[in-house]
Write a structure and sequence with these properties.
about 450 residues; alpha/beta; six-stranded parallel sheet; four-stranded antiparallel sheet
């Protein structure tokens, strides 16, 4: 089977390749084609993969290309992780919001909307080329904002686009571990949108054991979310929020922490990765070793604005398979009909009452040769549903604004986002984003 990785020069691509290498099933990926628009990054990551491949005799063949159609030709699966504007674009998304006292984050709040506006046209182009060249292929989308981009691409490719994220599965595994249960035997009652969901149930041996965890302050303190939100707030909610809900529940704290740092997350990654790609260009033989060292630093600093300066991220919180494990599990389930259950971003239908049928939601699904099948979920509480409905409406406005080149709809989306506190501020945001992103300004003309 052929796997095309779009955004193939991205730093985390070796994680996907490593997961593919570890897949020892029958029908498996034997060809990986990396596509990227930046040749230097593509060659650096290609070298990392070649050195990984040297560690295993039957590793999948690696090819690189800057031609999208070549990458898609003959592909059975497509992993999409493109970043329109690169990390400089991300830093602008973050800084424009922070300069106005608002949350500056890649996927959440106004930064996520700006990123979505810039990314939807590129994602739609990819979807159209997939439809033309390899319509039988399945697209596994990790391009952020993942829920929004998956929903946009489904307008062309339907249910053959599946969005993935590692946050919900990581939360469920941590919760099971905290109770001393085997995570592989637990069932997760999780529901929401990408980067905006709640673990409402944790099934184990026929009963919901989540209340046991929520009632225990000490056990909550052993998991990332317990330390992040605090036992009292989790007990008030009666559920465990996805870590990204910190930006909604503790907005002022998050903004103050980010503004008090020497650099945003995007700026940190930009500087870190520039050094990495430059070093690999200078010494290709050391590519894999450098990548492993930089990855360790990257993982340990993830969402550091949510922790005290002296508090390191628990190693268990960055273990457990990640999004690359989800991607390989999807491919195995579809290609080999290895029925599996996982949390994915899929078309809602009637799964989450109160949301449009065509909305993409993040819920548990069974996956088999026919693709994902959403499982029934328990109803969201009123405060959860209200927030989900508002953010979903904003996401759908953003998609339409990008497709119709509408500054009016883009302004409406920004103004209606719960983390933007004024229509006047939304106008300033849009003006400043257009001045920082030439492609966005051109899109909205």
């Amino acid at each position: 089977m052929k796997l095309a990785i779009l955004g193939g020069g991205g730093f985390r691509v070796p994680l996907v390749y490593g997961a593919v290498m570890r897949d020892r099933g029958g029908q498996r990926v034997d060809q990986v084609c990396l596509y990227d628009v930046v040749p230097e990054r593509l060659e650096a990551i290609g070298e990392v993969l070649r050195q990984l491949a040297a560690e295993q005799p039957d590793a999948p063949k690696v090819e690189v290309t800057t031609d999208l159609d070549v990458a898609l030709d003959g592909a059975d699966f497509i992993f999409s992780a493109i970043r329109v504007g690169g990390l400089p674009g991300r830093t602008a998304d973050e800084r424009v919001a922070l300069d106005l006292g608002l949350l500056g984050q890649e996927t959440t709040g106004p930064g996520g909307l700006a990123y979505g506006l810039r990314t939807v046209p590129a994602a739609m182009h990819v979807a159209e080329r997939v439809a033309a060249i390899c319509p039988q292929a399945w697209v596994i989308n990790f391009t952020n904002p993942a829920g929004m981009i998956t929903e946009a691409m489904q307008r062309v490719l339907g249910n053959r686009v599946i969005g993935i994220c590692d946050s919900p599965i990581g939360l469920g595994r941590r919760a099971a571990h905290a109770l001393g249960h085997d995570p592989d035997r637990a069932s997760l009652g999780y529901v929401g949108l990408n980067h905006l969901g709640w673990l409402n149930e944790l099934g184990y041996d026929g009963r919901d054991v989540l209340p046991d965890l929520i009632a225990n302050d000490a056990l909550l303190g052993t998991i990332e979310e317990g330390r992040l939100f605090g036992a009292e707030w989790i007990q008030t909610l009666g559920s465990i929020p996805n870590e990204y809900l910190y930006y909604y529940y503790f907005t002022r704290d998050a903004v103050a922490s980010i503004r008090g740092s020497a650099e945003t997350r995007g700026e940190f990654l930009l500087n870190q990765q520039r050094a990495f790609y430059d070093a690999v260009a200078a010494d290709p033989a050391a590519a894999l070793g450098r990548w492993r060292a930089v990855r360790e630093e990257r993982d340990s600093t993830y969402m550091k604005e949510t922790r005290e300066a002296s508090e390191a991220r628990d190693a268990a919180d960055v273990a457990g398979g990640g999004y690359e494990g989800v991607a390989v599990a999807i491919m195995a389930a579809i290609a080999r009909n290895e029925r599996s259950t996982m949390i994915l971003n899929v078309r809602n239908g009637s799964t989450v009452p109160g949301l449009p049928a065509d909305a993409v939601v993040e819920v548990p699904c069974t996956v088999d040769a026919d693709g994902p099948h959403p499982l029934a979920t328990s109803p969201l509480a009123g405060h959860q549903l209200g927030l989900v409905q508002q953010v979903k409406a904003v996401e759908q406005l953003t998609i339409t604004a990008a497709l119709e080149h509408s500054p009016r709809l883009a302004l409406e989306a920004l103004a209606l986002h719960p983390l933007v506190d004024s229509v006047t501020t939304a106008r300033t945001l849009l003006s400043n984003y257009r001045s920082r992103h030439a492609d966005l300004d051109e899109l909205l003309r």
